[in-house]
Amino acid sequence: MTVTAPAGFEAAGIAAGIKRSGALDLAVIVNRGPSNAAAAVFTSNRAKANPILWSEQAIADGQAAAIVLNSGGANCFTGPEGFQVTHHTAETAGSALGVSSGDVLVCSTGLIGEQLDIEVLEEGVLSAVARLTPQGGEDAARAIMTTDTKPKTVVVEGDGWRVGGIAKGAGMLAPGLATMLVVLTTDGLVPPARLDEALRAATRVTFDRLDSDGCMSTNDQVTLMASGASGVTPDPAAFTDAVTEACRSLALQLQADAEGASHDITIEVRGAVTEDDAVEVGRSVARNNLFKAAIFGNDPNWGRVLAAIGTTQAPFDPYLVDVSMNGVRVCHAGRPDAPREQVDLTPRATHVLIELHAGEASATIWTNDLTHDYVHENSAYAS
Amino acid sequence: MTVTAPAGFEAAGIAAGIKRSGALDLAVIVNRGPSNAAAAVFTSNRAKANPILWSEQAIADGQAAAIVLNSGGANCFTGPEGFQVTHHTAETAGSALGVSSGDVLVCSTGLIGEQLDIEVLEEGVLSAVARLTPQGGEDAARAIMTTDTKPKTVVVEGDGWRVGGIAKGAGMLAPGLATMLVVLTTDGLVPPARLDEALRAATRVTFDRLDSDGCMSTNDQVTLMASGASGVTPDPAAFTDAVTEACRSLALQLQADAEGASHDITIEVRGAVTEDDAVEVGRSVARNNLFKAAIFGNDPNWGRVLAAIGTTQAPFDPYLVDVSMNGVRVCHAGRPDAPREQVDLTPRATHVLIELHAGEASATIWTNDLTHDYVHENSAYAS
Asked: So what does this thing catalyse (chains A, B) (predicted)?
């Protein structure tokens, strides 16, 4: 059910012919109302794709009636022609749905620097709009996949309302945002300002803390649309919690399907002075290729953890730090503790606990290991 | 001849038994004077190894009579016992050489978090001191190797004086400094302040611009010792040029021998507002795993260059940027230009030119590609 689990939404996912493989490659999700409230957060990369440039404008009024998403091409660094493709996609969808093109968001994902065929997009949008159904969420989740091996979906139940979501993303997973496309829906009656507030609170502690490979995309977009079709106005705190739960579930699904990864690594930092410090420390480890390669090799090389966190500005004394891996404290006060042979890194789920002993703040960063398959998939991506 | 090419220096490299393989693992380089002027720059990692903590103090007075370097163990995060090993190493060498232990620098490289055997070190230092010769530079260069496949050496001829050098480093190559040990010698008559000035000017544009894998070491040290044995006071500018030339040669030798690399990538950034901006832009590309994996696959994926530089704070318009690879401009003004098929990335030497069109400043960063072998070597390092 995914994005169509909340009342008021219809979706479709089709094979428009953008991907040469013939796989599903175009999704349309429509909000039938009564409300068209929406919010979105975008990549902080200054190199923004054309659909990002469009969607930033379209969402500015807090309203969106539909969103069109395609895989098979990022439509980034494709010049004015590329922007025309995005604009025409929104106009085609708006016209077919009887709404303003300014209420249609667009997302694209795939290779940077290649033009999309405007006619293929137009036919695809018309075909998808003709197949919209209240059961179309699963197809939509499949149509946005690139190197993903499985669709990512979530439904969270509220008190008389629901939050549903789909996500795609397997490479270029990094903060600000993690590189991906996400659509969240709710049938709660929630005004745009509240949607925006809940979405930013949720992404800050979920997608922004997923850092699979340190590479920031040009096409990230997380969109939240509210139909109000339940007639229920959710409690604000409960709504933020539900959106956060949906985002966390999708973020962990992205991590579990990251390109070539063999370990899902949870880096938990405790005892930092501030939460920002904890995030900086965790991220420095998540982005350290030597650490990531060691985990791939099932090697509890805690020296690489300390070498990584020593590059941060966060206030702590490296010679007071404890490091534990999968429950075994291998470093105590900056010195060897339990023998590294006691650590079992064969499970995919890997827990690294870093205790700074500098304060009371904590944060968790999710990342993956650096593997042969990561290198292979990303050296062959364009071919 | 290497570090013993300049007059006044003797060296030895021996197998002390630190490495289980029985390979050379300990080097001593002695400055016989008449001058003992010296300067050094150290890792900016806050997690500093014990030999760094020692050497920072020992060099503070601008004097050093000898330097002891070992491979086979980094002596980092080994607690007070580890510092004792370093201290005893300096005392043993000083006593055998008839100089103060405070004039003996120490460098270590190898795995973090494992103790060195203090008796093995002591015997090794005594044995090496007994074998010092004016021809010992080559052995010293071999004794500091870890995963290096070949020794790195250089000699630069001045006007009546010389600069010689050795270096080791293959992984953890990143700025501030690139991760490595380097010893430079000169027989020029140069006071400590001038040595320091020349060394900092040289490393700023050489080792600091080598960023093989973004990982900063805990043990980096570049040392420059002047014997004055030539009796010649070099022209200051000529001396800085010679030290810079020596550092550049060693930096490029490090790049060429980087762990698992199949491409030596020169990233040239032109048209930046400031040199710092150019460095930031170049470094963002050098640290982007997706770009590095693409180069491994001989894929001129310029979209990943733009996605990387879009994450920087440097002032420029992404939609004015040109990108060329090995002489073919594949991106002009943020749009596709020459077909990517025209780019031949099969040579090991790879040139990426990024023209920002924002100002007049430029900088060059050297890096390597991300390969299966890099992952393999760094996942198996500890075993």
From this structure: N(2)-acetyl-L-ornithine + L-glutamate = N-acetyl-L-glutamate + L-ornithine; L-glutamate + acetyl-CoA = N-acetyl-L-glutamate + CoA + H(+)
The shortest CB-CB distance from A113 to any of B214, B336, B378 is to B336
* Chain region(s) in chain A for CATH 3.60.70.12: 2-256
Is there a contact between B306 and A171 if contact means CB atoms under 8 Å apart?
no
Tens digit of pLDDT at every position of chain A (383 positions):
799 999 999 999 999 999 999 999 999 999 999 999 999 888 777 778 899 999 999 999 999 999 999 999 989 888 899 999 999 999 999 999 999 999 999 999 888 888 999 999 999 999 999 999 999 999 999 999 987 888 999 999 999 999 999 988 765 444 333 457 888 999 999 999 999 999 888 888 788 777 766 666 677 788 899 999 999 999 999 999 999 998 888 888 888 888 788 999 999 999 999 999 999 999 899 988 889 999 999 999 998 899 889 888 999 998 899 999 999 999 999 889 999 999 999 999 999 999 999 999 999 988 889 888 888 877 865 44
Contact A40, A200 (CB under 8 A): no
A78 touches chain B (CB under 8 A): yes
Answer for the pair A189, A228: CB distance below 8 angstroms, yes or no: yes
CATH of domain B264-379: 3.10.20.340
H or E element at residue B193: helix B192-204
- Please answer yes or no on whether A381 and B287 come within 8 Å at the CB atom: no
Which of B215, B318, B372 shows the shortest C-beta gap to A289? Answer: B215
Count other C-beta atoms under 10 Å from residue B369's C-beta. 27
- Identify residue A152 by its one-letter amino acid code: K
User: Given CB atoms, is A220 within the 8 Å cutoff of chain B?
Assistant: no
Furthest-apart CA pair in chain A: how many Å? Answer: 67
Token readout for B369 is: 């590609």
Alpha-carbon distances of A368 from A210, A309, A342, B291, B375, rounded to whole Å: 9, 17, 22, 18, 13
Q: Are B375 and B260 in contact (CB under 8 A)?
A: yes
Give the β-pairing of A104-108 and A66-70.
parallel
Known binder of ligand: residue A147? no
Q: Is A383 annotated as a binding residue?
A: yes
Structure tokens at A331: 């470093």
Beta bridge partners of A338: none
**CATH fit for domain A2-256, picks 3.20.20.70, 3.60.70.12, 3.30.420.40, 1.25.40.10:** 3.60.70.12
B370 vs A: CB within 8 A: yes
A168 annotated to a ligand binding site: yes
Paired sense of beta strands A322-325 and A264-272, if any: unpaired
DSSP assignment of B213-263, as one string? SSPPPSS-EEEEEE--TT-----HHHHHHHHHHHHHHHHHHHHHT-TT-S-
Phi, psi of B367, rounded to the nearest 5 degrees: -145, -175
- Block residue for tokens 């966390």: A248
CA of A67 vs chain B CAs: smallest distance (Å): 24
Q: Is A203 annotated in the active site?
A: no
Amino acid identity for residue B265 in this structure? I
Q: Tell whether A382 lies on the interface with B, counting CB pairs under 8 A.
A: yes
SS3 B359: coil
Start and end residues for every CATH 3.10.20.340 domain found in chain B = 264-379
CA distance B99 to B110: 28
